[in-house]
Amino acid sequence: MDLFDKFRIDKGPLGKYRASEGYHIFPKLEGPLSNRMQFNGQEVIVWSVNNYLGLGDHPEVRAIDAQAAADWGMAYPMGSRMMSGNSQYHYDLEEQLADFVSKEAAVLVNFGYQGIMSAIDCLIGRHDVVVYDADCHACIVDGLRMHQGKRFAFKHNDIESLEKHLKSAESIVENTGGGILVISEGVFGMRGEQGKLKEIVDLKSTYNFRLMVDDAHGFGTLGATGAGAGEEQGVQDDIDVYFATFAKSMASVGAFLAGDDDVVQFMKYNMRSQIFAKSLPMPFVIGAMKRLEMIKTMPELKDKLWENVDMLQSGLKDAGFDIGNTNSCVTPVYMKGTVEEAQKIVYDLRENHKIFCSIVVYPVIPKGMILLRLIPTTVHNADDIAQTIVAFKDIRTKLDSGVYATEELVVG
Asked: For 151-188, b where at least 16 C-beta lie within 10 A, e where not — what string?
């Protein structure tokens, strides 16, 4: 068989929706990043952009980004960081990030997805055992695919399940001489639930393991200073490897890992994705420094974010919607229905109600379930929220009455 024959037969779990490309899949939002943007030729309220603090189109941020690009261009510094792509600005940003998340040191990586994959590959060997939350992001799962040793997935946020696997892990490393790494998330991006970091940390008194936390959605949004889920739960000091991306609250490109100095230095010299890849370009480094400064000195950004989060989530709950156990900004709305009904819901929301939000269906969630995920931001307002709740009430009525199952939608 020709290698490519299988691509023509099996297009994968999402490839079968290619007919919807440009609308349901790979949609094109246009115009400045904001609460309202252009989609398919009309203005829509956007709940799908992880621009939590509104920094993506903030005039101060745009001015810094533009100046940095003018001063340095997008190429500088050239080469991998280890060889020729280093600068004092990279060191300064790492120092500032480490201080902000209360760690001894930090190391920059070019992308969140690639960075945490490479960190996992760097930190564990074939004699080590990994125990991770079953709902961990795909980047963590892909990192673990490279692991040649044992790994166990514990049930989502289930401490009893975690402890069961820790016992198995301990019995394995007694023979291999390896160690144990536990991986969880600060905030799980689909459900919006914070990882049970405090309960995980409590197990350190009984089991010998190190804890890695992916805090992509918690960094900048949780905790008294915005330092994330560990700060929110009072266990930041007990997180051994802290990871966050610039792609959410900082609305940019790049990421970092932080921890004890010896661990960070080891990663700096052994993460293959950084040793063999071009350094993070200067405009992203300088832009990240400005964004971090604003997170630290402008708490009103996070305050406004949470004002909107509370308004949206309480409004949905008061209207009888199931938003699960979210205790973060991520706001899931769960409904029951088929994939075909979900597609019609999205069409109705976008065309008739001018609401743009993400939709999640099988195989990401169980068959028969529909998840509409809303990401509130600082730039949303009360009118956006009120209009959205009215729209959701309308689609629920249609879903419950079978409209989406039996009728074609009319735009009007």
From this structure: bbbbebbeeebbbebbeebeebbeeeebbbbbbbbbbb
